[in-house]
Amino acid sequence: MSDQALAQYEALTHGCGFARLDGWSVLEFSGDDRKSFLHSFCTADIKGLDDGNVTEAFILDGKGKALGHVHVIAIQDRLLLAGHSDQGVALFEHLDRYIIREKVVIVDRSGDFELMLIAGAKASDVNQVVLQADVSFGQALEVCQDAASVVVVHTEVAGPAFLYLVPKDSAEVFSARFKENAVECSPAVLEAVRLEHATPWYGIEIDNTNLPQELERDDKAISFTKGCYLGQETVARIDSLGRVNKLLRIVEGNVSDGVEVARGDLVINGDKEVGRVLACARVPGRNVSLASVMLKRASTKVGQALQAGEVSVVVVSPKV
Q1: Non-local CB neighbours of 299 within 8 Å, separated by 6+ positions
Q2: By the 8 A CB rule, do 130 and 174 touch?
Q3: How far is 291 from 223, CA to CA, in rounded Å?
Q4: What residues contact residue 221 under an 8 Å CB cut-off, 6+ apart?
Q5: Residue 72: which residues within 8 A CB-CB, separation 6 or more?
Q6: Is-contact 140 53, C-beta < 8 A?
Q7: Per-residue pLDDT of the chain (320 residues; tens, 9 = 90+)
């Protein structure tokens, strides 16, 4: 891989890397009942989410399948739900039909924002330079600069990162500021870091066929004490039984003679198909590819040897 890719990877891990995120969705919830309403339709404790904080959450259907996976951002007068892929329309249609007398308004704001991130050991310093704001992990802040209202969140995006919701008409200004203080990184390098941290994105590792516990985000996105919500019976039943039939894992394989893991490759254990590659990326500076796979439970132990396409791989998640 190129020296440029290696420099970007080093920035995203040990320095500060910057990336613009394409195709993310943003929903806005306003009104006095916004927290109690959303609380009834997702896995996180939204009633207990104080303004200025963020949490991951799954939004489920009645059978407990994941219709969405989002970051719920609580700021003074509204909630913002930000998530990978075009979840916005489907989630709006799913949730809006349940509003009867509740004082809540849902607006799809996906077209109003561009999402950006910075990550790496020096990302906090760069955030301070660009926005003059300290934001601890798990916190969110709305900052007004040059008449632009920017929301910054410190959460897991591709591993720990600062996520920015920037108004579209200010995107180029803020992008330039970040590039002055951080290394701009390609989607391929960002993907390698995301897979190293086993951070799933909706539309790639997560879709409406998944049960939330399959994604191994229980401590980050699921409250088991919050009470009833749509799909809660399935989540509680899985928790009491202690198992699902498949789990998200990251596998690693050496790159040899140009042959590496590819998206869509079948994953085999012995003579049995146990999964399919959902996403993959080559790690700069290492002669390996990483891939995300939803594996049958019997093949999920770290160290398990498998075959992905033509490549021998080993299970390495949750962290390489």
Answers
A1: 267, 269, 274, 275, 306, 315
A2: yes
A3: 28
A4: 43, 44, 55, 56, 57, 58, 69, 212, 215
A5: 38, 42, 44, 46, 49, 54, 55, 56, 57, 79, 80, 81
A6: yes
A7: 589 999 999 999 999 999 999 999 999 999 999 999 999 999 999 999 999 999 999 999 999 999 999 999 999 999 999 999 999 999 999 999 999 999 999 999 999 999 999 999 999 999 999 999 999 999 999 999 888 999 999 999 999 999 999 999 999 999 999 999 999 999 999 999 999 999 999 999 999 999 999 999 999 999 999 999 999 999 999 999 878 999 999 999 999 877 899 999 999 999 999 999 999 999 999 989 999 999 999 999 999 999 999 999 999 987 54
111: tokens are 């077209």
Contact by Cβ (8 Å): 40, 104: no
Query: What is the amino acid identity at position 116?
Result: M
DSSP per-residue letters across 209-222? T--GGGGT-HHHH-
Pair 67, 208: CB distance under 8 Å: yes
Q: 3-class DSSP state for residue 45? A: coil
Query: Cα–Cα–Cα angle for 240, 232, 246, nearest 5°?
Result: 60
pTM score of the predicted model: 0.96
Instruction: List the structure tokens of 163.
Output: 């996520």
